[in-house]
Amino acid sequence: MVTLSAPNFDSHVARGTWFVKFFEPGCLYCQRLAPLWAQLANTAEDNKWSVLIAQADCTEDLWMRLRCKKLGVVGFPTLLLIQDGQLQTRYMGAASVLHFQHWLRNLNVLRTESSDGRNGTYLNGVANVAFRGSRTATLSEPVSSTWNQEIVAEISVGSPPQEFRCLLYSGSSDFWIPSARCSSCTSERRFRADNSATFRQDLVRTPVGMAPRPINVTYGSGTGQVFGFAVRDTLNFGSVQMKNQSFIIVEDETVPPHPSWDGVCGLGWHQSSTDPPMYQRLQMQGTRALFTLIPSAGSKITLTVGEVPASVNNSTIAWVKAESVGSKTGFTAAHHSFWVTSGGIAVHKRHPVPADFLVDSGTNMVLLVPLMYFENFIQSLFPEDLFERFCGAGDGSGEFIACDCSVTETEGLLPLRLYLGGRPFVVKFKDLFMQLPAESGRPRQCSLMVRPNRMGTPMKPDPNDPAAQLWVLGGAFLEHVVTVFDFDRSMLGFAPHPSDDKAKPIGQCLNCWAQTRSVLSWKKPEAFPWKPLAAVIPTVLVLLTLVPWCVRNNFQSLANNEPAELLSSDNSGE
To answer: Tens digit of pLDDT for each residue in 448-486?
Structure first.
């Protein structure tokens, strides 16, 4: 780092680009910035930046006081960009090496050593996105569900196309892929912008001329963040081509490792950083803005763009209106990109308890339960003493629950029923678990894919906070149902898994019974000769099973709030 003073100030800054910190030794904020500024200087030297990092003490002597006054320095610290002896602009952003670097790149003054060995400014290029595999007129393309229940599609970007794995995320409409220049990105596949003939940047006017528009996207509670620039290129999504599609080329990311995907393809509503998002680009081209996810054998999921395929029986789709997040949570407009709808939930009761659902394909759980109801909800899933015998808190917090996998083989456990569009969708007890990697000498362990939802006030939940009362349907639930995101009609559609048999609707059973066949799998022998007797025997067996269970269950209670009804039977006589 260069220290500027009266003898060398003018001669140094007369040539080249200088990023200078003006300070006074007694300034507390200057002292706090000092180690960070030294780190910035080391970074610049190690990477052979074209921008020189310097510092100047404005109180050193009279000449420096006058020089600082001439440059408009009235407070400390002040950070100025000086180019060929002329003041260009003042830095007003956050204090971090990353933010300094992004600011300099945005001004088009920073040169670093590129990945191919050439010196250059920010690379002007990104590419198109298209699915790998056969491209047919059906618009259907295979996607996959990872071990972490993440729904991932193969896409390609640019001319010629560069292939990427894209996480389908319904919680945002942002679309981003990593740049070849991103040193913090963990993905092996990086986009080389200068290799795309159709790439364009979104430029904005700055004090030193036109420059790429920077974008910072924060996920969750601030634990995940990406930084990049707004760009445009042709996107091939499935068999649909979207020319001049907006997206973010990421230069820096601080998100958990994601070996199964490279970037994010947002299926959320427009309140994002990219304009227009994918669904609006489809609408501009006259294509239906509709995305259908269809589970198939194994972990495969078929994505259809622009239509509900003929393989899905329209009469089985339960349609629900997508509601504004603000109407449920009071969130500001910046959070209006989620899919939220009303429905119900039940385990023991015949009729569901009303619930507001947020559909989030990026959450790798079956269900996130409002924190204030989480403990009671867990009690409703596990019969008395079963939890103590087989399960425990895997991380000491009580939120990550691990069980001996043999618990999923226990007979008589009721399924979870989620009501959408007035129709029940059943998640069997065994499907609430995911087997963990085996450890030598230990029994098989399974993780319960139900966690608390910590939206709103996470540490001390407020029952009056609408955000804290949302039930989040995650990607592990969407693996079991057909899901339709219809932007044109602002509707969500849900249909049973294609392999599901045509069982009778859930709820048409005894007061405290969710689904008789889930516990008593008795079937009439094919050669049974007495039809009247065959009709009576199942009823007798069911009653013999239910009477002691109901008597015991009448003594159980979850809490005084409404979701406590999940445990109790419906005694209304309806």
So the answer is: 999 988 775 444 556 667 777 889 998 889 888 999 999
Q: At what angle do helices 97-106 and 28-46 cross, to 10 degrees?
A: 60
Distance CA 29, CA 31 (A): 5
140-305, CATH topology level:
Cathepsin D, subunit A; domain 1 (2.40.70)
Which amino acid, one-letter code, is at 212?
P
Paired tokens of 165: 């794995």
C-alpha 38/C-alpha 32 separation (Å) is 11
Cα–Cα distance for residue pair 83/17, rounded to 1 Å: 4
Matching CATH number, 2-120, of 3.30.460.80, 3.40.30.10, 3.40.50.300, 3.40.50.410: 3.40.30.10
Return left, alpha or beta for 456; rule: phi > 0 is left, psi -120 to 50 is alpha, else beta. left
**In 3-state terms, what secondary structure has residue 193?**
helix
Tally Cβ neighbours within 10 Å of residue 222. 8
Q: How many residues does the chain have?
A: 574
Question: With contact defined as beta carbons under 8 Å apart, do 114 and 271 qualify?
Answer: no
Q: How far is CA 289 from the centre of its chain?
A: 20
3 φ/ψ angles, rounded to the nearest 5 degrees:
-100, 120
Q: What angle do CA 363, 411, 481 make, to 5 degrees?
A: 30
Round to whole Å and give the CA distance between 448 and 165.
27
CA distance 104 to 349: 61
- Kindly give, in sequence order, each residue whose CB lies less than 8 Å from that of residue 332, ignoring residues fewer than 6 positions away: 326
Q: Is 212 helix (H, G, I), strand (E, B) or coil?
A: strand
Question: What's this model's pTM, rounded to 2 decimal places?
Answer: 0.63
- Among candidate residues 357, 564, 381, 364, the one with its CA nearest the CA of residue 455: 357
Beta bridge partners of 154: 165
Written as one letter, the residue type at 16 is: G
The tens digit of pLDDT for each residue in 501-520 reads 443 332 222 222 333 223 22
Q: For residue 517, give both structure tokens.
A: 């066949």
